[in-house]
User: What shape does this take?
Amino acid sequence: MTQYTYFFGCIIPNRYPGIEYAVRWVCGKDGFDLDVEDIKEFSCCPVPGIFYSSDKNTWLLLAARNLTLAQNERREILTVCNGCLTSLLKATEYLADPKNLGKVNRVLSQIGRKYTGIPRKTEGRRRIMEPVKVRHYVDVMTNDIGLEEMAEKTKRPLKNISAAVHYGCHYLRPTENQTIDEPNDPVKIDRIIETCGAASVDYEDKLDCCGAGGGVRSHVVELANSLTEDKCRNIAEAGADCIVTGCPFCLLQFDNAQKSFTKEGIPVMHVSQFQALAMGIDPISLGFDTHHVSAHSFLRKLRGT
Amino acid sequence: MGEAEKTFISGLHEKLVEDKVIDESQLEPDFAKEIVKHGGKDVMTCLQCGNCTGVCPISLKIDYKTRSIIKFCQFGLKKFTLETRWVCATCYRCYEHCPADINPAEVMIALRHIAIKEGVIPPFIRMAAMTLVNYGQSIKPDPEIERVRRELELEDMPSRNPEFAKVVREINLLIRSTGYDKLIGIESEVKK
Assistant: This one.
């Protein structure tokens, strides 16, 4: 059985604790009972739009520090965020280059750490190492657990719900090392929605950016919001009851941006929250009160009132 | 959109319209090499096909043309490119559609690196970095959210644990080791 470690990042614990609850619940005893532990020394991944954008050396050191923690526990990193995924995954690629690795380890030695990767097998005396595995929540759900097992756990199918899936750019691209899904025609989150008994509605420009990434939200929020507005218009036209995404940063953008152009708004949730609902969790545990767009319309429809 | 548009376009486009005459003194012949040094690909191999601009979600909203920026890089118009603001959402669509395999998104990242070295630092970079050196995370803990966490019976944030001070010390050391604190001007925040 694969061993994982949670990597919640910064947004989920500090802004949307309901997602953390949902993920722990789905992966825990009430759900799929995965072998997953916490590593309390994890820091920010670090966020690519800030650190990868401003100084790659610093970015790589901070990411490598996080990787060594998972490496020492021999665990795969289970990220719940597209940003953490892209940052840590890219760092493992950089560290595959011996030149970068040497440079990083020289500095890491000052804090008593060393990145080597995880030994996969031994050939004679030589140990063959492989990079620390960085996995996305959706990847673990669909590839390690599988849709069949997920369907079995669906106790309360969300029959009357139609959801609009937003994948988010860093789930899809760059495509060269993307192994989670088909980058130009992704289906994994749609499949999860269907396993939950709900319908995933198609809408125009489904694979478009939410607008927040790369520091755009922090830098020119109006520009980011206008991209989100386009997406929300298409989603509303498709008649979706909620937006479901695998990325808390996209979620944060949809959740915060909507108040700048609409009064009501479409509720936004993480795929783990949606799953947890179908698996029978009490919605009160999903922390929807920390979301800016009220989930009432969605929950009312769910109850069928 | 008005204000944002003004702030942003003022970077590249309007300046070029104003200073129509560009003489050689404004060109940096080694600019393409500098971009490569900062992790971008060689912009000289750009075919100027414009696919990058065609698929860029930002170009739909403001006057921001990836192809033009790459062209300015080819010319060596460093001064102008550094004034383009950080509006690339790093969605990597341009990368997927580039027939010359330039990866324009990474060129934009390289331009940001160069801008930072030249002292053009957007305030949010400092803010996020300061939060990181103080809390070990890029987002400040929010008392209201911490209350919800307790309601949900989630554990307190690791950063609230006294043992987390060690993590913060390690991060501060790593940030000092690359000179990042001096680079973006937060030396006073970074602990020795």
Q: What stands out?
A: The first helix of chain B runs from residue 2 to 18.
